[in-house]
Amino acid sequence: MKKSLPLPKGFSAAGISAGIKKKKKDMALIVSDVSAETAAVFTTNQIKASPVKWDLKVVEHDGARAIVMNSGNANACNGEQGMADAEAMAALAAGKLGIPPLDVFVCSTGTIGKPLPMDKIAGGIELLFDAVSPDGGMDAAEAMMTTDLVSKTVTVEIDLDGKPVRITGLAKGSGMIEPNMATMLAFILTDAAIEKHTLQCALRVAADMSFNRITVDGDRSTNDTVICLANGQAGNELITQSSKHWKLFFQTLEKVMFDLAMMIVKDGEGATRVITVKVTGAASGGEAEEAARAVANSMLNKTAWAGKRPNWGRIMDAIGYSYAQVQENKVDIDYDDVPAVRKGMAAGTPEEELVAAVSKEAFTININLNLGGGSSVVYTCNFTEDYVRINVE
Amino acid sequence: MKKSLPLPKGFSAAGISAGIKKKKKDMALIVSDVSAETAAVFTTNQIKASPVKWDLKVVEHDGARAIVMNSGNANACNGEQGMADAEAMAALAAGKLGIPPLDVFVCSTGTIGKPLPMDKIAGGIELLFDAVSPDGGMDAAEAMMTTDLVSKTVTVEIDLDGKPVRITGLAKGSGMIEPNMATMLAFILTDAAIEKHTLQCALRVAADMSFNRITVDGDRSTNDTVICLANGQAGNELITQSSKHWKLFFQTLEKVMFDLAMMIVKDGEGATRVITVKVTGAASGGEAEEAARAVANSMLNKTAWAGKRPNWGRIMDAIGYSYAQVQENKVDIDYDDVPAVRKGMAAGTPEEELVAAVSKEAFTININLNLGGGSSVVYTCNFTEDYVRINVE
Question: Considering only alpha carbons, which residue of chain B is nearest residue A321?
Fold first, then answer.
């Protein structure tokens, strides 16, 4: 039996095959029964895909009702035609709902620099509105997939003074993944009633603590987008940053986004294991992050982890060329709680214990620079020949 | 018959197996009959191997006679014992020559964090002095190899007012290669008579135009070293920065180092082709370099090139997330002279022509940001499954 995805109250969804990709679902639709508060974060890449530019306008104006997305084509680097196509895609969906185009978010993911096949998009939108239902969540998640091996969804329910509130997340992404977003799309739906600026603040902070902590290959794409719709259908008391339910809502939102982020890094192209890189004792938080990223993005480290080899010298090397200040004779490194390096030198732990530590399904590399109070954490994956196979093809 | 390497006048060399690696040559020696002027450039990594720290002292004092090196062990992250071992290695070689230890450069390359096997090093130094001869250049180049598939040597001879002057280079390196050096060692020998500061200036500028232009995997190692010895045995008039032969000497030095750098990038771990990334029209030279590096180090680009796919979208993506200022609708990209992108969009060249352009043994990606006068060039290689195989093992 097919897994189902419980959507928050007042949301419906669909995922169908519009023929953009061969034989696979390639378009998704999410609709709220009523206008929802919106928040969104986008790629920091200077080259932004047309749908990202469109969505920047949508999120600036009040409320939205729908998200329409396609995979197989990124609608990036298509100039004025790309912008016209993104707007037309929104207008087609808006027409079906009888709302203004600016009430519809548009997302595209796939190949860069090919015109969007608007005939297929138009046909797909017809099919989506035929199929849309409260049970369509899993179909939508499937249609979001590109090189993903699994669809990625999370639903959590919380109780706010007797009112059940649900937060549901759908995401895609596996290559071009790096802190500050990637070819990554995530839609967060909730029936919570929440004030717009509170929602925006929550989404931005939660994104920094989830999607912006993961890295697969250090590439940031042109299309990364996280959109949140909050339609208020749960009937809870309006959440603001000073209300008592703010904390629980934020923590739940963060959990949903963190879980989605971990699903993405676990499904990294060719990856088999998740590795957590924690840096403490840096001169500043920013330097801790630079050091953690250098380690997490080093091909020499990622291939060593694929081979289940401790190879802490490659970690020393990476922090040494990072922008973080490092004093060789102060550095301590542990794999989980197994000492690998003390004061910049081998800690003396027998090789077989180090090998065992890095052979686990998941493990944490704890790096203490012993210089100050800055700390940071980044989640990454190992790097196998399969990544090359996937990206050569 | 074995290829021979003509050394400059007054130099001899040897390469032998000391048992640090299994059955392969793993130690090399280069000796000048007389004290030579010295110049050197080292890794910018904050974590420097012990031999690098030793060599910094050698190059600061006047003159040197020898270089002794081992592969199979980097003598990095070994603390005080590492420094003592590097100095002992210099002292052992110096003892054989009856000179002070500070007249001997020491280089090590290989695994980080394992103590140098000093018994094998001592035995190896005995064997090296038994073997050293003017014909030993190729043996020395072989002993420098780690994951290199081929040894890397260049010899060029120039005529300075009737005096033949020779510049000979020996290098190793294939992984951990990125502008600003890598697990890369290069020894440049010349019988030219040249003033010390002139030599230092020439070496630094030539390194910026050769070894610092290549990138294999974006990693910079703890041991990168380029050492130049100039023993004056050619009998030419002393070269200074104001002398008439300065320009020819510098150009020849640069050619030797550039040829060695190209050999290294061509022998990049798992690589099969050399790709030149040229950026023009950047807001500054530094920004041009940032953009070129982002493209050259992007795994998505390197795997696309391995698959002989144009995939210019991945180039747009990489310049977009680089630190260089980019305006999407001004970017032009050509593969050699085949237009791929005009004003940020597909140039309209048929796909098969683009595929043909990136299928060549070597090709240049010309990126014009059309913003200013900054330009830069970086040389890189494609990325295949073999890199992963090599580094997993």
Answer: B45
